[in-house]
Amino acid sequence: MGVRGAAGFESAFRCATGRSPYPWQARLATRADPAQVIVAETGVGKTEAVVLDWLWRRRLSGDETERKRTPRRLVFTLPMRALVEQTLERVCGMLIRLETHGLLDPEDPVRCFQLMGGAAQDDWVLHPAADQVLVGTVDMLLSRALNRGYGRLGRSAWPMHFGLINTDTQFVLDEVQLLDAAVATSRQLAGFRAEPCLGATPLPSRTVWMSATLNPSWLSTTDYPCPDSESFLELDSDDENSPLRARLNACKRLLKITVDPTDARSVANVIADVHRRAGQRVTQDRWLTVAMANTVARALALRAALAELKPETELLLLHSRFRPPDRERLVERLKTPPEAGGRIVVTTQVIEAGIDLDAAALVTELAPWPSIVQRAGRLNRSGSHEQTELIWLDPPVAKISDAIAAPYDPDDLERARAALRNLEGQSISPASLRAQRLQDPDREHALVGRRPRGLLLRRPDLLELFDTDPTLDGDDADVAPFIRSGQDVDVGIAWRDLGDSEPDVWAPAPTYEEVCPVPVRERREIERLKPWRWSYVRRRWERIENQRDIRPGEVLLVDASQGGYRPELGWFPTSRAAVEAIPLKEAEPPDSDSTDPASSAGVWITLAEHTDHVVSELEADLAALGLDQGWVASLRQAARLHDAGKAHPRFQERLRKAAEDSGAPDAPDPHRLWAKAPGRLSGRQPVFRHEVASALLALEHTPDAADPNLTAYLVASHHGKLRLTPRVAYDELPERPESATCLGVTDGDPVPQPDPSGLQRRIELGGGVSLPPSRALDLSPFAIGSFDGKPVWIERTLELLERLGPFTLGYLEALLRAADQRASARERRHSVAPAAAVGTV
User: Mean of the pLDDT values across residues 384-407?
Assistant: First the structure.
C-alpha cells in the first residue's frame, strides 16, 4: 500500500496530519539511514516527525528492504505522565486518519498502547509479530527493559516484557534533558543490544534520542561513545523559511523580577500584575497566564495565595500527583477556552514539555537552562501574539541555597541565572536561541550542563537482572538508580475502604484509575498513611512498618479514612479528610504461585486440544518473524511439551475440583487428560506448578534434540514462575519426609497416574505426538551439584544465558508465552482456534 519517494512521504504526512511536513520532518523520513539524535526546537512537531518516520519506513514506503530492517514496535518514552495521554491521542489520531485515507489496512492495524501509572495496557505483549506503538513514562518503560517492570504486582510478567521490549523495538526517548540517569542507561542498553558477547537481539532494535537542548556528551558512556555526527539531525535554513517561521521567531521578551520563590504571597502578587498586563495587550478578554513552580508544595501554596488575592479569576492547578480520572478532568478543562478575565494555570514541570499551551504571559521560578528553554516553549507557542513577557523570579540572595534550588542542583541554577541576566530585555524566541547555539556550541553545552550522575548499568548488572526469582525475604535488585538519580522515582498509592482489616488476598490488584503517583522520597508522609504492600513470597498483603520498606515502583494500598489526597489538589499528605475510593472494576488478584487463571475455561478442553491451539498460535508468529531455524525448532518442541505436566494427577484433581465448585458437569471422559475446565483454580490451595513436571518430562524425552537445554528452559518458563533457580525443599510431605519437592511437584510422582483399571496411559499432546507414561518424576536435575555426570538445571540455564545472551533468551521465552496466552484467551471466549498444526518431538 506504500508510495515510494519524498513525494509519497509528503502525501502520507498530509493524510496523517492535515498539513505538509516541515522540511526537517521530510529529511528525517527520507534519509538513507535513520537518525539516532534529533535536536529540534520546541513546538516544531517532533512527535509527528518520529512517528511518521517510523511508520513510513515500516509500512508506507513500500520498500521491503527498509521494512525488514525497521523494528515492529515504536516505544515512545516520555519523562512524565501528563505527556503520555496527549502523545497517545495524537498518535492514535494519525493512525485513524491514515486508515481513513486507505494508507493503512484496517485488517492489519497498527495498535497503540499506554504504559504508565499503577497499571497499564499490557496486552501488547500478546502480539509479538504485530506493528505497535507503545507510549509511556520512562519509569514504566525502562524498568521493563531492565526486567523489573514497575506498576505490576506480578513478577512473573517481568521476563515477558523484558524479552519483547528489548527486541524488534525502536525506542524514542523524548525530552532527553528531563530524563536524568535514564539517558546513560538507554545508551548502555542500546550498546548491549548490538553486542555479540551478549547475544545481541534476534531482530533489529534501535534507539533515538530527542531534545531541544542536548549536550552530546550526555550520550557518551564508559562503554559506548556518542553516536557520530552523521546520525544527528537538526533544523536548517530551509526550516527558517518554511511555515515554521512564525513559531521560530515568536517574540518572548525576557524580564527579571527579584522575589523569594518560597514567599507564596509575594509571588502571587507578581503573577496577578503580570496577568493584568497581559490582558491589556491581547485583543480579547480570554487569555492564559502560566505560573510555574519547581515543587508541588510551592505550587499548592501559590494556588492558595492566588485564590485569596484574585478570587474572581479562574485558577487551575496542574501537577503530576493526581489520580488519572482527576487529572483527566483538569486537562480537559485546560483544553477549553478561558473564561472572561482570563485564566491562570499554576503548575510544575508537568507541562514543561509536550503539552500544547499558548500562553500570553509566563512566570517561572529560576530553573536549569534546559527547563527554562522548555518552559519558554509554552509562551506564544503559535507566534500569534505580537508581544509577550516571560518573567523569571530571581531569588534575592547572592548564592542560591539547596532549599531554594530543590529539586535542582544549585550550580545548574547559578549557570542559568547568569545567562538570563545577560539576556535581560531581549527575546528568547526559538530562532534566537538556535542562533546562539550555532554561534557558540561550547558555551551552549556548558550552559546545558553535564548528564546527571547516576548508577551506570554494566554487563554484569544486566545479567544479574535476568534472574527474576525472589530472594527469601522478597527483596529485589533496585533498578531505580538506573532510571532517575537521587530519589525522584515514584510509588503508586491506591485508596480503598479497608477499615481495620487486612486487604483480602483475592481482591483485585489496584487498577490504573485508582493509583496516584507519589515520590518515593516522601517516605515519611507515606508511612503515616499506614500502607499495605503485596508480598510475593508470602502471597498476601503486609503492613509496612518501616519507611525503609517503601520501594520504587511498588503499588501500595491505603485505607481511605487515612486521607492524604484531595481531588482538586491531588496528593496532599497533610489532609486528614477521608478519600473517596474509586469503584472497583473486575481485575485479576495479585500474582502468586497458587493462582492459575489460564487453566480456567467455560468448557472442558483436553490437553491435546489446548496444545494444538498453542502450536497454531505460535506458528502464526513464526511465519511472520523469520527467526533462526534452530530457535524455531526449539520453540515448536517446547510448544508441544509445555503443558505435558498437566497430566500430573494433582493437576487433574484440581481441574475436577474447580468444575465441581463451579457447579459444572464432570469431565465428559474421565479416562482422558484435560488442560482446562469450567471454574477457576484460585482457591487457597498449596502451591503447585505444572510447568515443573513439564520441564522434567522435556528433559526426559528430548535428549537427542538439537538444543535440549533451550527446549526445557522454554517449557519451564512459560508462566514465568520457574526460570533460573528452582526452589527445592524437603520435609513438605509428612508421608514422604525425605522426598524433594519443587513448587508442589515431588520426587517420585507418577505422571500420568494409571487409570482406575491400572492401564498406563500415554500423554497425548496433539498433532500425532504423545509421550509414554513416566514411571516416576525425577527431581535430581533441580538439585544443587551434579548427578550422574549430567548438568543440573542451573548449569543448563547459565549455559543458555552465556551462549544466547539475555535478549535472545528472553525474546524466545516471550514468544511461547504469548502464543500460550492467546490460545487460552480464545478458549475462554469459547472460540475455536485455527486447525491444529502437526508437529514432532
Answer: 91
Instruction: Please count the other Cβ atoms lying within 10 Å of the Cβ belonging to residue 45.
Output: 18
Beta strands in 25-98 (DSSP E): 37-39, 73-78
What is the pLDDT averaged over residues 181-201?
91
Q: Give all strands (DSSP E) within 668-812, no chain letters.
A: 674-676, 728-729, 741-742, 745-746, 763-764, 770-771
Q: What distance in Å separates the CA atoms of residue 805 and residue 195, rounded to the nearest whole number?
A: 9
Residue of 593, 720, 602 whose CA lies nearest to 659: 602
For the segment 608-661, what is each residue's pLDDT rounded down to a tens digit? Answer: 999 999 999 999 999 999 999 999 999 999 999 999 999 999 999 988 888 887
Respond yes or no on whether the N-terminal peptide bond of residue 726 is cis (omega within 30° of 0).
no
DSSP helix/strand/coil, 137: strand
Q: Check if the beta carbon of residue 252 is closer than 8 Å to that of residue 429.
A: yes
β-pairing verdict for 389-394 and 253-258 = parallel
Residue 205: its pLDDT value, please? 96
pLDDT category at 834 given cuts 50, 70, 90 is very low
Output phi, psi for 254, to 5 deg.
-95, 125
pLDDT at site 590? 57
Query: Which residues, in sequence order, are bridge partners of residue 314?
Result: 343
How is residue 45 written as a grid cell? 512537531
Left (φ > 0), alpha (ψ -120 to 50) or beta: where does 364 sit? beta
pTM listed for this prediction: 0.85
Residue 228's contacts (CB-CB under 8 Å, 6 or more residues apart) are none
> Who has greater pLDDT, 82 or 365?
365
Q: Cβ of 623: how many Cβ atoms within 10 Å? A: 9
**Burial profile 717-733: b = 16 or more Cβ within 10 angstroms, e = fewer:** bbbbbbbbebbbeeeee
Q: What is the pLDDT of residues 417-457, one digit of tens each?
A: 999 999 999 999 988 888 888 888 888 878 887 776 778 99
pLDDT greater at residue 43 or residue 134: 134
Handedness of CA 731, 734, 738, 744 (dihedral sign): negative
What φ, ψ does residue 517 adopt, rounded to 5°?
Answer: -75, 135
If residue 494 lies in a helix (H) or strand (E), which one and from where to where?
strand 490-496
The values of phi and psi at residue 45, to 5°, are 85, 45
* pLDDT confidence band for 666 (50 / 70 / 90): confident
- Longest pairwise C-alpha distance within the chain: 96
Q: Which residue has the cell 522435556?
A: 698
The DSSP bridge pattern shows strands 361-365 and 570-571 to be: unpaired
Inter-residue contact 28 to 238 (CB < 8 Å): no
Tell me the sheet residues that pair with 556: 493
Q: How many alpha carbons fall within 13 Å on the CB side of residue 658?
A: 28
Using CA atoms, how far apart are residues 801 and 803, in angstroms rounded to an integer?
A: 6
Cα separation, 49 vs 839, whole angstroms:
45
Q: What Rg value do the Cα atoms of the chain yield, rounded?
A: 29
Cell numbers 508421608 correspond to: 735
Closest CA to 824 of 688, 717, 640, 676: 676
Cis peptide before 752 (omega within 30 of 0): yes
For 777, residues 6+ apart whose C-beta sits below 8 A from its C-beta are 693, 696, 697, 745, 746, 747, 748, 749, 750, 751
CA 703, 708, 714, 717 torsion-angle sign: positive
Long-range contacts of 767-770 (CB under 8 A, 24+ apart): 767/611, 767/612, 767/615, 767/640, 767/836, 767/837, 767/838, 767/839, 767/840, 768/838, 768/839, 768/840, 769/640, 769/839, 769/840, 769/841
CA 788 to chain centre: 45
Residue with cell 515520590: 519
Alpha carbon 322 to its chain centroid, in Å, reads 19
